Amino acid sequence: MVLLTGSRKIKCAVFISGTGSNLESLIHFAKKKNSPISIELIISDNPKAKGLKFGKIFKIPNKVFNYKNKIIAEKKIISEIKNKNIKLICLAGFMKILSKDFIKSFKDKILNIHPSLLPKYKGLNTHHRAILNSEKYTGCTVHFVNYRLDSGKIILQKKVKISKYDTAKSLEKKVLIQEHKLYPKAIRKIFSL
Ligand code: GRF
Questions:
Q1: Of the chain's two ends, which shows fewer C-beta atoms within 10 Å, N or C?
Q2: What are the tens digits of pLDDT across the range 26-64?
Q3: Atom of ligand 1 nearest to the CA of 22
């Protein structure tokens, strides 16, 4: 594995829309000496995203883009990312679907974390649907982003057992704990090739 230190770390932007617990775990990961990434920018479509506080706490610039006009918002994001020489985008609870043109501009450089064992339960309300279907296991997946929703190449997955007492809320909590470990692990995996 190639160890990247200081300025040789891969510059990364994290996109969020909500709580930002995955963002927080990625920030702690990036701070490790032997982490392959540094987080240079936090992007959100939601000015009220709770996760924006991590930008202030950890002194990482954050930018909120108005998505009333998606084409304009994406153009601005692309120029911001290129200016900062960002080479990796980590989606972490970002609730907007990226356009084909955006994905094309950063081919194979966009990752996402999804709260299910893909290809099962793409889209929203994954825990609720897994429980309704009496699944014994669910989990989380880190994958590359391609043109189809939650369908890009899988990097890593982690299984989580569903107990008969689980609700969508309790399952969300259990899965999130695993997400926080899986995202850094997946990033290590792609940069250790
Ligand atoms: C996570 O469950 C993630 O898998 C999904 O959105 C949620 C974001 O949670 N894409 P958080 O904002 O990182 O706490």
A1: C
A2: 999 999 999 999 999 999 999 999 999 999 999 999 999
A3: 13
What pTM was estimated for this model as a whole?
A: 0.95
CA dist 3 and 9 (Å) reads: 9
Give the orientation angle of helix 168-190 with respect to helix 21-31, to 10 degrees.
Answer: 30
10-192 homologous superfamily: Formyl transferase, N-terminal domain (3.40.50.170)
How do the domains of the chain map onto residue ranges? 10-192
- DSSP strand E in the chain: where? 10-16, 37-44, 62-64, 88-91, 110-114, 137-144, 154-161
Q: Which residue lies with its CA nearest to atom 6 of ligand 1?
A: 93
